[in-house]
Design brief:
The protein has about 250 residues and is α+β, with helices and mostly antiparallel strands. It has eleven helices and five strands; from the N terminus they run ααββααβααββααααα. The chain folds into two domains: about 170 residues, 2-Layer Sandwich (Beta-Lactamase); about 55 residues, Arc Repressor Mutant, subunit A (Orthogonal Bundle), CATH 1.10.10.
């Protein structure tokens, strides 16, 4: 079995340990920061963009479960109501996959106010960022944003790993919330080949690469992954992986 990515082994161990039973968002968030810091992204914000938001602590910004961005930046952001013009927030609802903050200006014709938010965030120490939209049932949308204070970090290289970590942490948070979208009460049995494919997805491998490793065709890999997604009622590989990890299916 390959080693998990983005602190996945650490996260999986934690989730199955007594610490998970503490039902503490603070402990979970500390682990999330620890895992993302290993990838060079020690600043994290996790929250909901829809009304059906998870339980949050009152001292944090609205619609956020928790955030450890620099306090001066959080205060400035709130005072100037940057959430209304933040291009990261505004573009999250338009995305179906994780995206880099650095690419927003190239992909969209940002307004001066939007550029100001990005530039001031960099000045505050958020040099590079990755945002992962987390889509749930009934139109629910949550988000995890990772930011780095390092000039030379490569967010594109870390993208798949942070994506996997975001989904894993999201499901763990959801399980301790009063109304959990993340709990899977179904009795699901994955085949050994489906498990093998998901383990290599966890390593960031493409269908073609997994096919070479397992000595099967790319179409066969896609077949097994689609079966796993169907069984776990998900519409993406990363979401499927996260749901399989939580109950220990892989």
């Amino acid at each position: 079995m390959p080693k998990s990515v983005a602190g996945g082994t650490k996260w999986t161990y934690f989730a199955s340990s007594n610490a998970q039973n503490s039902r503490s968002p603070e402990v979970l968030f500390d682990l999330l920061v620890s895992c993302s810091s290993e990838q060079g992204f020690s600043q994290v914000a996790y929250g909901a963009l829809t009304d059906a938001e998870p339980t949050r602590r009152p001292e944090y910004l609205p619609a956020a479960v928790t955030v450890n961005f620099p306090s001066a930046w959080r205060e400035r952001y709130a005072e100037r109501r940057y959430n209304a013009i933040d291009p990261v927030v505004r573009r999250t609802t338009m995305q179906s996959a994780p995206f880099l903050w650095d690419q927003l200006a190239h992909k969209y014709q940002l307004q001066p106010g939007e550029m100001r938010v990005l530039n001031e965030a960099k000045e505050a120490g958020l040099k590079h960022g990755v945002t992962v939209p987390l889509f749930g049932p009934f139109g629910q949308l949550s988000v995890v944003s990772f930011a780095s204070s390092f000039d030379d970090v490569d967010p594109e290289y870390r993208l798949s790993r942070l994506n996997a970590l975001a989904w894993q942490s999201h499901h763990t948070f959801a399980e301790i919330a009063p109304s959990s979208e993340g709990k899977c009460h179904m009795k699901v049995a994955l085949s050994e080949r489906e498990k093998d494919c998901l383990r290599w997805v966890e390593e960031g491998k493409s269908s073609c690469e997994i096919g070479v490793i397992l000595r099967v065709s790319e179409n066969t890999v896609n077949f097994h992954l689609k079966n796993a997604m169907r069984k776990l009622e998900t519409n993406s590989r990363t979401h499927c992986l996260a749901k399989a990890i939580r109950p220990g299916l892989i």
